[in-house]
């Protein structure tokens, strides 16, 4: 377990084992909590992306779904006719879809 934690410090901050060992214990725990939180956020975003792609591939048929259609379904394309407000609404809608997809896989 300690090797994993040291690896987190190495990858996040580039710190050596000796430097990590020299940290005050409270600082070590605070930094570790931040690293773990950021790592969980990163994994959550990756999972949401993977679930969204899987869902859209299933929904549209994997061979029929172009990358542009994938982006459109997520509300991530911007055409000249779409206002910023509409784009924000589409983005929120896509985020909510992604959350629903994640919830489906959590059950």
Summarize it.
By secondary structure, this protein is mainly α. It has 5 helices and no strands.
Give short descriptive properties of this protein.
107 residues; mainly alpha; 5 helices
Walk me through this protein's architecture:
The protein is mainly alpha-helical and 107 residues long. It has one domain. The chain has 5 helices and no strands. The protein is elongated and about 55 Å long. The model has no long low-confidence stretch (mean pLDDT 78).
Write the layout of secondary structure elements.
Layout: H1 2-13, H2 17-22, H3 25-60, H4 67-74, H5 84-106
Number of domains: 1
Oligomeric state: single chain
Major beta sheet, specifics? none
Class based on secondary structure composition and strand pairing: mainly alpha
Mean of residue pLDDT values? 78
User: How many H/I helical runs?
Assistant: 5
